[in-house]
Amino acid sequence: MHEKNGSEKQMEIDERWMELALEEAALAREAGEVPVGAVIVRGEELLARALNRPISLHDPSAHAEILAIRQAAAAAGNYRLAGTTLYVTLEPCIMCAGAIIHARIERLVFGAADPKNGAAVSLYRLFEDRRFNHAVAITGGVLREACAEILSGFFREKRLTSSP
Predict the structure, then answer these.
(1) Which of 65, 91, 106, 128 is catalytic?
(2) Is residue 1 assigned to a domain?
(3) Could you tell me which of 70, 76, 137, 150 has the fewest CB atoms within 10 Å of its CB?
């Protein structure tokens, strides 16, 4: 019998939480929002889960990550979210990356890279800038295919329905 090492166990944990983020992304898609979902956990405790809602809330800052950070801070009774992990289906933009740093989130796990807006590894590498007062550990590509497919399917559908 194969005993799992620490990294295999962590991958299983990461995939389990990312599946929950994908559920949130699916809800966003059903609501006509860009399908991005996020969850924040501390250990095994779920602090927040959120979906992208800028269209329905008429709020350009209502990204899944921002809404999850707001929920988690309220649940924790503290705007600093030390010891937490944020799981998000799409690499965060620069606005969300800034909020992650300010919230002192310990670890970021994302699914699909975002070559147009990604601020973790794709377009910018904000978390590598040591001038900030907080470092964030990054794991990318968790359930990458599923995270990318929900996005590409959404935009493919949009193009088909908006064609003359």
Answers:
(1) 65
(2) no
(3) 137
Tell me which residue has tokens 């209502």: 62
Q: How far apart are the C-alpha atoms of 158 and 138, rounded to whole Å?
A: 31
The one-letter amino acid code at 42 reads R
Residue of 75, 138, 77, 126 whose CA lies nearest to 102: 126
Distances (CA, A) of 33 to 60, 95, 97: 12, 18, 20
Hey, what amino acid is at 62?
A
- Kindly state whether residue 52 falls inside one of the protein's structural domains: yes
Active site residue 65: yes
Residue 124: which residues within 8 A CB-CB, separation 6 or more? Answer: 94, 97, 118
Contact 51, 27 (CB under 8 A): yes
| CATH number assigned to the domain comprising residue 94 | 3.40.140.10
What is the per-residue pLDDT across 51-103, written as a single tens digit (0 to 9) for each?
Answer: 999 999 999 999 999 999 999 999 999 999 999 999 999 999 999 999 999 99
> How far apart are the C-alpha atoms of 65 and 156, rounded to whole Å?
24
In angstroms, the first-to-last Cα distance of the chain is 58
Looking at the domain assignment, is residue 89 inside a domain? yes
